[in-house]
Design a protein that fits this description.
The complex is a heterodimer of chains A (about 325) and B (about 160). Chain A is of the alpha/beta class. Chain A contains twelve helices and twelve strands. Chain A folds into two domains: about 1-140 and about 305-325, NAD(P)-binding Rossmann-like Domain (Rossmann fold), CATH 3.40.50; about 145-300, Dihydrodipicolinate Reductase, domain 2. In chain A, about 40% of the residues lie in helices and about 20% in strands. In chain A, helix 3 runs parallel beside helix 4, helix 4 (about 90-100) runs parallel beside helix 5 (about 110-125) and helix 5 (about 110-125) runs parallel beside helix 10. The longest helix of chain A is centred in the C-terminal third of the chain and has 18 residues, at about 305-325. Chain A is globular. In chain A, about 50% of the residues are buried. Chain B has about 160 residues and is α+β, with helices and mostly antiparallel strands. Chain B has two domains: about 1-70, ACT domain (Alpha-Beta Plaits, 2-Layer Sandwich); about 80-155, 2-Layer Sandwich (Alpha-Beta Plaits), CATH 3.30.70. Chain B contains four helices and eight strands. The longest helix of chain B has 18 residues, at about 135-150. The chains are: A alpha/beta (about 325), B alpha+beta (about 160). Chain B: This is Amino acid-binding protein. Chain B: It comes from Methanoculleus formosensis. Chain A: It holds the Pfam family Homoserine_dh.
Chain lengths: ~325, ~160
C-alpha cells in the first residue's frame, strides 16, 4: 500500500518510525511538512527524512508544497496529520477534499475538518468510492470510534462521558495529589511537554468540546458545532475545592458528556467518586459509553503521544488495506 | 412512626400488613417489651419508606385494625446532592445564595463547608442540598446555576445526578 503523509510533526514522525520498525507493507510515496515536500514513486527514504527533520531542517525540498503532494504524488491513501485548526479546518480541509476528489482514501488525525465538515467529506468519499477514517482525532490510542462503529453496531447509545483531555487530567491529578495551585500544576505540565505555551485550547475545554462534536456528528447522528457545547474549563479551580471533594472520597475531573436524546453536549469540571473507573491518573484518557445491549463500557488509554496516535492512524490504514485497496 | 396496639397474638402482623398494602417498605421494627403492661397494650416503633401521598391512607387502614398511632416523625427530604462552589462567595452574599434554595420550600441547604485561603482570593465551598423529589432537586440545581452565573461563581456538579 502506498501512502502520502502531510505533516511531519510528532504524529507524522511516529508513523514514519512505526513503518521503519515494523513490516507493515506500507510505502511512503509523498511527504510534506509546512515548509517542504518530497514525491518519490519508488518510496521515500524515511530514515533520511527523519534525520533531517530532527536536525532542525525541512523534510524535503522547498519547491514541493503539500498541495503538490496531494495533487501529484502516486498514493492509495492520504495520511493527513497536520495540526488542528478549529476555526475553518484549513489547510487540511482543502487537502482532504483534493485527495477524495482524486479517488484516494484519507486517514486523518486532524480534528478541524472532521468536526466542521464531516457530512460533506463523507458524501464526497462515498461519491468517489473511497474511505475517510479519523480514529486518531478522538482520544489518541483508544480505538473508540472503531469500537462504537463496528463492535457496538446495533446498540443505542444513551449517554457517553469521560476524560477527553490528558493535559487537564494531568493538572487536576497534580492539584489533588500535592495541593498545587492551578498555576503551579500548569507550569509543571508545560515543563513536561504536556501543555502548550498557550494552553487555552486544552484548559478551556475546547479540545474536549471538539472531540464531543466529532463523536456526536459522526457516530450519534447529531448535527452540532462547537458553539453547541456548554463549556467550562479548569482555570478557576482551587486546591481547596479539590480538598473539599477529597474529604468525601471524591475528586474533580474535567468531564465531557453527550446525552443524545436530550441534545446535551457539555464539558465541565465535575465531582467524581475516586472509585469511579473514569478517575484515571496523569495524562490518560477514559470514556464510558452507556448502551442498551452491551451495558456500560469504559475505555482507558493514552490520549496523546507520537507512537500512540500513530497507532490509531496505522489501525485505520490497515483497515482500509484489508478491505479496499487497488493497485498494491 | 410509633404505634400502640393490643398485646395479643397476631396484632403485630395485623399492624404491618397495611404498610405493604399501600406500597410501603419496612426498614426496621423496634418492639419494646419493657413498657409498663398496665394498659395491656404494646408499643412498637416502625421505620418505613412510603411513596409520596400514601400516608393518610395508611393511617386510615391502621385505625381500622384497631392500632393507635402515637407519633409520626416524617423525614421529608430524601434526595441529596453535594456540589462545590468557587468564587468570591462571601462578597457575593453567601446567605443570599443559600436563601435562594431554601425559599423554594421543597429543597434546602443542609450542610456547607467553606474554605477561605486568603483575603481577596476566591474561596471554595462544598454545599449539600436535600430535596423532597428528584424534580425539586433538578430545580434547585438550576436555581444555583442561575445564581452562579449572576455572581460569577463556578459550580462543580457531581458526575452522577441526585
Amino acid at each position: 500500500m502506498r501512502i502520502a503523509i502531510l505533516g511531519f510533526g510528532s504524529v507524522g514522525r511516529g508513523i514514519a518510525r512505526a513503518i521503519l520498525a515494523k513490516n507493515l507493507d506500507i510505502t511512503v510515496t509523498g511527504l510534506a511538512d509546512s515548509r517542504s515536500g518530497i514525491i518519490d514513486p519508488a518510496g521515500i527514504d524515511l530514515q533520511t527524512a527523519l534525520d533531517q527533520k530532527e536536525n532542525g531542517g525541512p523534510c524535503g525540498s522547498p519547491e514541493v508544497s503539500p498541495a503538490d503532494v496531494v495533487a501529484k504524488a502516486d498514493y492509495d491513501v492520504l495520511v493527513e496529520v497536520t495540526p488542528t485548526n478549529v476555526d475553518d479546518g484549513e489547510p487540511a480541509l482543502g487537502h482532504i477534499r483534493g485527495a477524495l476528489g482524486r479517488q484516494k482514501h484519507v486517514v486523518t488525525s486532524n480534528k478541524g475538518p472532521i468536526a466542521l465538515a464531516y457530512p460533506e467529506l463523507r458524501a464526497l468519499a462515498a461519491a468517489n468510492g473511497v474511505f475517510l477514517k479519523y480514529e486518531a482525532t478522538v482520544c489518541g490510542a483508544i480505538p473508540l470510534i472503531h469500537a462504537m462503529q463496528e463492535g457496538l453496531a446495533g446498540n443505542t447509545i444513551s449517554r457517553l462521558y469521560g476524560v477527553f483531555n490528558g493535559t487537564c487530567n494531568y493538572i487536576l491529578t497534580r492539584m489533588a495529589e500535592d495541593s498545587l495551585t492551578y498555576e503551579q500544576a500548569l507550569a509543571e505540565a508545560r515543563e513536561l511537554g504536556y501543555a502548550e505555551a498557550d494552553p487555552t485550547y486544552d484548559v478551556e475545554g475546547i479540545d474536549a468540546g471538539v472531540k464531543l462534536v466529532i463523536l456526536a456528528n459522526t457516530i450519534l447522528d447529531m448535527q452540532t458545532t462547537l458553539d453547541d457545547v456548554e463549556r467550562t474549563g479548569i482555570t478557576l479551580l482551587t486546591p481547596e475545592a479539590l480538598q473539599l471533594a477529597e474529604d468525601q472520597d471524591c475528586t474533580i475531573r474535567l468531564i465531557g458528556e453527550i446525552v443524545p436524546e436530550a441534545g446535551v453536549l457539555r464539558v465541565s469540571p465535575r465531582i467524581v467518586a475516586k472509585a469511579h473507573p473514569l478517575v484515571v491518573e496523569g495524562t490518560l484518557n477514559a470514556v464510558t459509553v452507556e448502551t442498551d445491549l452491551a451495558g456500560d463500557l469504559t475505555f482507558i488509554g493514552k490520549g496523546a503521544g507520537s507512537t500512540e496516535t500513530a497507532s490509531a492512524v496505522i489501525g485505520d490504514l490497515l483497515y482500509i488495506r484489508d478491505r479496499h485497496v487497488q493497485g498494491s | 412512626m410509633k404505634l400502640e396496639m393490643k398485646d395479643r397474638p397476631g396484632q403485630l402482623v395485623a399492624a404491618l400488613q397495611p404498610i405493604s398494602a399501600v406500597g410501603g417498605n419496612i426498614v426496621a421494627v423496634i418492639h419494646q417489651r419493657e413498657t409498663p403492661a398496665v394498659t395491656e397494650t404494646l408499643d412498637v416503633q416502625i421505620v418505613l419508606k412510603l411513596p409520596e401521598g400514601r400516608l393518610s391512607r395508611l393511617l386510615e387502614l391502621l385505625r381500622e385494625q384497631g392500632v393507635n398511632v402515637v407519633r409520626i416523625d416524617e423525614e421529608r427530604l430524601l434526595y441529596e446532592c453535594t456540589l462545590i462552589m468557587i468564587g468570591h462567595l462571601m462578597h457575593t452574599d453567601l446567605s443570599d445564595t443559600v436563601d435562594r434554595i431554601d425559599t423554594t420550600g421543597s429543597a434546602e441547604v443542609t450542610e456547607l463547608s467553606l474554605v477561605m485561603p486568603a483575603i481577596a482570593s476566591p474561596s471554595s465551598a462544598r454545599i449539600t442540598i436535600r430535596s423532597t423529589t428528584r424534580t425539586e432537586m433538578k430545580k434547585a440545581i438550576r436555581i444555583l446555576r442561575g445564581v452562579a452565573e449572576q455572581k460569577s461563581l463556578l459550580i462543580i456538579e457531581p458526575l452522577e445526578g441526585a
